[in-house]
Structures are given as C-alpha cells and as structure tokens.
UniProtKB/TrEMBL annotation:
<feature type="modified residue" description="N6-carboxylysine">
    <location>
        <position position="151"/>
    </location>
</feature>
<keyword id="KW-0479">Metal-binding</keyword>
<dbReference type="InterPro" id="IPR006680">
    <property type="entry name" value="Amidohydro-rel"/>
</dbReference>
<keyword id="KW-0378">Hydrolase</keyword>
<dbReference type="Pfam" id="PF01979">
    <property type="entry name" value="Amidohydro_1"/>
</dbReference>
<comment type="similarity">
    <text>Belongs to the metallo-dependent hydrolases superfamily. Hydantoinase/dihydropyrimidinase family.</text>
</comment>
<dbReference type="GO" id="GO:0004157">
    <property type="term" value="F:dihydropyrimidinase activity"/>
</dbReference>
<dbReference type="InterPro" id="IPR011778">
    <property type="entry name" value="Hydantoinase/dihydroPyrase"/>
</dbReference>
<dbReference type="InterPro" id="IPR032466">
    <property type="entry name" value="Metal_Hydrolase"/>
</dbReference>
<feature type="domain" description="Amidohydrolase-related">
    <location>
        <begin position="51"/>
        <end position="441"/>
    </location>
</feature>
<dbReference type="GO" id="GO:0005829">
    <property type="term" value="C:cytosol"/>
</dbReference>
<protein>
    <submittedName>
        <fullName>Dihydropyrimidinase</fullName>
        <ecNumber>3.5.2.2</ecNumber>
    </submittedName>
</protein>
<dbReference type="InterPro" id="IPR050378">
    <property type="entry name" value="Metallo-dep_Hydrolases_sf"/>
</dbReference>
<dbReference type="GO" id="GO:0046872">
    <property type="term" value="F:metal ion binding"/>
</dbReference>
<dbReference type="InterPro" id="IPR011059">
    <property type="entry name" value="Metal-dep_hydrolase_composite"/>
</dbReference>
Length: 483
C-alpha cells in the first residue's frame, strides 16, 4: 500500500510568511509531509507552474438566513459551491436570533440546513434580543458547543441593539470567552437622513450612500470601541469601508486594545459611483456600509499593509436582482431604503483580491494568504486545522494559476444569484482546482464536491480574554464583580 493518498508535486507553496518550492503529501485528509522525494502515493497531483495556497477561510458569509427581509438566493448547497469555485474551503455563517425568539432553536435548525454544505463551516451567533434566557443559558451553551463568536448590529430596524443591550452582550461574551463582531453604523443618523432624502424625493439607488455616510460609520466604530474598552472585551469591526473607520481602529490598537478590523473586496474595488449606474442597475451595488471613494480604497490598502485591518472577507449576502423576491421585492424601481442590503461575493473574493493585490503589486503572496486564510482562521479559532499548510493541518488547498486571465461572468460564480457585481472584470490569477481535506471540490470549471461533503468545525473558547484591566482604578475590583 502506498505511503500517502496524494502527493501534490512541483508547486510553490505559499504560507503566511514564505513562498517555497516543495511537494505536499496527504494522508487521511491531513497534510502528512512537506518536502522533496516524499515517497509513493496512490495519486499524484501535478502542480507545475502553480501556487499551492491554503484554502480560503471566509469568516463573514450569510447563507440560508432569514432576518433581513427578502429571500436569500443561496443556501448551504449553492453558497458553498460558490465558495469552492472561488478557492474557499471554510465559511463561517450566522445563526440569526429572531426578535423575541430563541437563539438555540435557530442554531439547531441551522445545523440541519448546513448538512448540505460542500465545504467546511462554522457559526457565529447573531444576538438581536439579549434576554436573560439568551445571555445566561443559550449563549454559554452554544459557545461551549463551538460557536465562540457573537455578532451584534448597531443599525437596521428589527435587529439592532441599543448601547445598553450591546453592553449586556459584551459582558456575556467576556464571561463566556467569545469574540464580538460588530456592524457599526449610527442608526439614528441614518434613519434621519433617510427620512429627509425620501421626503425630498431623492430615492434612486445612489442616495443609499447619502443616507449612510462615512461619519455614521466612524461614529459607531468609535462608540463600540469605547464600550468594548470599558468592559475590556476584544471585538472585530466588520466591513470597514474607508479611511475614517480604519483610523479609529488604528488609534485603538495603538492604545493596546484588542480591536480587530475586517474589510471586504468590494470596498477595495467599488465606489459610491457604482450606485449611480443607469436605471435600477445601481441596486446591484446596495450593501451596507456603502462603497466609498477611490481615496478610501487607497487608504484601506495602506491599513491592510500595515496590519491594522487583518481580515478580508466577502460578506456574501446575496439576493437576486431581477426578482420580486430579491432586490425588487419592494417594487421596480423601489426607493433605495426598501432595497435589501447585500451582494454576492464568495466566488469572486480571492480572484479579484489576487488581481488587485498581488498581480498589481500592492501586496505580496504571504500577505494575500494572511488576509484571506491565516488571519481569519487564527482570530476565529480555526487555526491550525485551517488557515495554513503545515503537517497535521487539514489538507485544504488551492492550485492557483497566477497567470490565468478570466473574464468574470455570473455563471462562473456557481451561486444561486442572477448577477455578480464583477461582471466583465478581468482577473489575473485564478484557482484551477480546490481541495477540501484532500478531496477535490472544484476542478477549474465545475464544482465536483458533493453537497454534504462539508463538516461543522467546532471552535474552542476565545483565549485572549484576560483579567479585567480597563475600568479606571480604584473601581476595577468592584466592576469586575458586576461582570
Ligand atoms: O449589506 C450587507 N452587508 N448585508 C449583509 C448584512 C450585514 O450587514 O452584514
Ligand atoms: Zn453588517
Ligand atoms: Zn454581513
Ligand atoms: Zn455551478
């Protein structure tokens, strides 16, 4: 019998810190050896002229989720097909508590829905109603079961929490060792601006960006940082859209706070001008916070290079465009404030970022791997099973052709949507094969991984919560007893 199941031969392996020529041997779904002349294997994968990258880890993915209005066009089946087609082998999705409802019940239902996944997955816990039952009973139980990240919204009717509710969640996260992820925008400023715009008849998609200006985001980022600092709880700010929010995060980090930043490919590639495309086309670019300016894009690249923002995710949140169940569910055209927020992005994340980042010389290969795989895996407790190619890690990898040019179309996204915001975009660099635990799930044109081939990944409690430091002395001891 052969020593290994598979040897990936002749490629250049990219890790979070190096690029080097070596072969990769796989046995029972994990990396068994890395080096030269590794011996015999049942199968050989030719990786000549290819990069061998750890599978993408996308820690911000909405699939089969109710809670924000119209129907999502991706469940775990099509959504994870899209992931595989874009080189992503692990997604973290959202258990979404309905207002007044149970988080635990949704988690149980979500586990069943996720059984159709084609890549591995884990869950964040979105708290929309922090009742004693949820905070004292359900959250500790779910975190213990492997879901150690909590999501809160500071805006959107029906899901947002006020500051006191946010504090309750932060305290519960501290008690139970969870990382809190935050959608940070000032709800009342957005609500007031929306009222003004709508009553002035300014309702086309472009006014989405006027209703959700940078200052609404910057204020909320600054406020959540203060609340998290008060309780000494680590947070990740989701979807940082531009310079001002990133600057708040940089300042918090300089003070020694555990405040992490995530951005998405669309903030590096799209601008508010895309909302102003003719007709209702701009609705294809409605997501929150909105895309900003080219100056914001350049600033974000700088914050990425300096490590202030350390994760790039997709925020895949797809609704169909030409569909009364999707972007047109409130009419065609509907006023911007009735159009569901969110765009598809799972399959495009790595090819577009590679093109903009690596091929255009803005970031190097290890930085690409850190931002899209290693850092999210570390921050969310998936590392070293995921996010790296090392002996003992899951054999999740991409054969990546750095020269391959592809013109993106909706069909290449392999999702349930009827559009991609990147239609016609020319990539340089593309995945030619994706492997999950040693099994091929994408062959360069077709998704070949079976629905149900993905597994739930339980994540251990977040270890970076230390004894309370942040309340001003001499009150520390008293405050600590309150949490
Ligand atoms: O527009 C967006 N981002 N929709 C998805 C929900 C969220 O805010 O992450
Ligand atoms: Zn959000
Ligand atoms: Zn999201
Ligand atoms: Zn397909």
């Amino acid at each position: 019998m052969a020593t290994y199941d598979t040897i990936v031969r002749g490629g250049r392996i990219v890790t979070a810190s190096e690029v080097y020529q070596a072969d990769l041997a796989i046995k029972d779904g994990v990396v068994a050896a890395i080096g030269y002349d590794l011996g015999d294997s049942a199968e050989v994968v030719d990786a000549k002229d290819m990069l061998v990258l750890p599978g993408g880890v996308d820690t911000h993915v909405h699939l089969d989720q109710t809670g924000l209005g119209p129907e999502m066009c991706d469940g775990f089946d099509s959504g994870t097909a899209s992931a595989a087609a874009g080189g992503t082998t692990t997604v973290v999705c959202f258990v979404w508590q309905p207002k007044g409802g149970s988080l635990a019940q949704v988690a149980a239902d979500y586990r069943v829905k996720a059984e159709k996944a084609r890549v591995d997955y884990s869950f964040h816990l979105t708290v929309t109603d922090p009742t004693p039952e949820v905070l004292e009973v359900e959250l500790p139980q779910l975190i213990a079961e492997g879901c150690r990240s909590v999501k809160v919204f500071m805006t959107y009717d029906g899901v947002r929490l006020d500051d006191r509710e946010v504090l309750r969640v932060l305290a519960a996260a501290r008690r139970n060792q969870a990382l809190v992820c935050v959608h940070a925008e000032n709800h009342d400023l957005i609500a007031w601006l929306t009222e003004q715009l709508v009553s002035a008849g300014l309702t086309t998609p472009k006014y989405h960006a006027y209703a959700k200006p940078m200052i609404a985001e910057r204020e909320a980022v600054s406020r959540i940082i203060a609340l998290a600092e008060a309780l000494d709880v680590p947070i990740q700010i989701f979807h940082v859209s531009g310079a001002q929010s990133a600057e708040e995060i940089a300042r918090a980090q300089a003070r020694g706070l555990k405040v992490w930043g995530e951005t998405c490919v669309h903030y590096l590639t799209l601008t508010a001008d895309d909302l102003d495309r003719p007709g209702f086309e701009g609705a294809k670019f409605i997501f929150g916070p909105p895309a900003r300016t080219e100056a914001d894009q350049e600033a974000l690249w700088g914050y990425l290079k300096r490590g202030v923002i350390e994760v790039i995710s997709s925020d895949h949140s797809p609704t169909r465009f030409d569909d009364p169940k999707g972007k047109k569910f409130a009419g065609d055209p509907a006023p911007f404030n009735k159009v569901p927020n969110g765009i598809p992005g799972l399959a495009a994340r790595l090819p577009v970022l590679f093109t903009e980042g690596v091929s255009k010389g803005r970031i190097d290969l290890p930085t690409f791997v850190r931002l899209t795989s290693t850092n999210p895996a570390k921050l969310f407790g998936l590392f070293p099973q995921k996010g790296c190619l090392a002996v003992g890690s899951d054999a999740d990898f991409i054969l990546w052709d750095p020269q391959k040019t592809v013109t993106l179309t909706n069909a290449l996204m392999h999702h349930g949507g009827d559009y991609t915001p990147y239609e016609g975009y020319q990539t340089q660099g593309y995945p030619v094969a994706t492997f999950l635990r040693g099994q091929q799930v994408f062959d360069g044109s077709a998704v070949v991984g079976a629905a149900g081939g993905g597994r739930f990944i339980a994540r251990p409690p977040y270890p970076m919560i230390t004894p309370l430091q942040r309340f001003p002395t001499p009150f520390n001891a008293v405050h600590a007893t309150l949490i």
